[in-house]
Amino acid sequence: MMLVVTSHNGLPGIAKAMQVLREGGTALDAVEAGIRLVELNEQDEGVGIGGLPNILGQVELDASIMDGRTLAAGAVGAVQGYAHPISIARRVMELTPHVMLVGEGANRFAAEMGFSRCDLPLEHARNKWQERLRDLFPAEELDALAERKELLPLVRELINTRLRQGTVNFLARDQYGDIACGVSTSGWPWKYPGRLGDSPVIGAGGYADNRYGAAACTGYGELSIRAGTARSIVLYMKMGFSVAEACWEAMRDLQPLLTASGGYINIVAMDRHGEPFGITSKPSGGHYLVMREDSHTPEERDAVVYQENTAGE
Ligand code: GLY
Question: Any idea what the CATH number is for the domain that residue 152 is in?
Fold first, then answer.
């Protein structure tokens, strides 16, 4: 069964990803093609060119991609000036002896690979940054923020771990039975420069292994880094758990961190046969998208709401 599973905001790219699979492309091709369209969605403030900036007004993008056939993986973090971190991550995976490049090194690699530069933030994102800081600084001082010795008090004041953060997850299974996952994000708005979340961290924000399945996360990435969430889900499937049981177990692992921080995590996952599952720790719920080889349109599914001390699936 060929299919694509995405976080709720994967809509701009999910049909393209399925088209790639139908035309004989690989799961990796599908994940990259789908995420590239989300990265171009100016309305998505958590991914790609629409992404909101860090505390200094700079857009820093993170992404990762993983090939479930070989366990090859590539990631970039805090990339500035490029619209498609997912494609840079894929080049890291395919062309370098490394898994992750960050900051200036990642920018340099993108230039060396011939990616086109892109001026970010877009006006909308810059306006939002100015609005957010307006009460704290006169507009004319904003561009001099980088000279300040202390940024941490500002970051602590502006970041709210309970608020929604955008990130996109794509999982795909192709006609050869190979699976892949990809994750792309601009991370937290107003974050400390250089902050990486779970998205570029293999095993935290995403993981894929043909033998068992794949998983990816959105939400408060520091928590899924600490719990190793995506890798845990795949390992639980290796241990014989169903995809739903594996996700519940990973949420149980996260529980103390969720309680202590007030943050949330959403997970999309699939087993090796392509059985999808989505779960969220948000009491208000959430959605994810599934498109199968025989679907005309993506199907929006309710994520299961994780509740502490319940048996789950
Ligand atoms: N989950 C995305 C991030 O924390 O940056």
Answer: 3.60.20.30
Confidence of residue 310 (pLDDT cuts 50, 70, 90): low
Query: Looking at the domain assignment, is residue 141 inside a domain?
Result: yes
What percentage of the chain carries pLDDT values higher than 70? Answer: 97
**Domains identified in the chain, total number:** 1
Query: Residue 261 contacts by C-beta under 8 Å, 6 or more apart in sequence?
Result: 161, 220, 222, 223
- CB of 210 shorter than 6 A to ligand 1: no
- Ligand 1 lined by 44 (C-beta under 6 Å): no
pTM, two decimal places: 0.96
User: Does ligand 1 lie within 6 Å of residue 64's CB atom?
Assistant: no
Q: So what's the pLDDT on residue 52?
A: 95
In whole angstroms, what is the distance from residue 241 CA to residue 259 CA?
25
Q: With contact defined as beta carbons under 8 Å apart, do 219 and 264 qualify?
A: yes
pLDDT in tens, 260-276: 999 999 999 999 999 99
Q: List all residues 6 or more positions away from 151 whose beta carbon is below 8 Å from its beta carbon.
A: 55, 56, 145, 192, 193
Whose Cα sits closest to atom 2 in ligand 1? 221
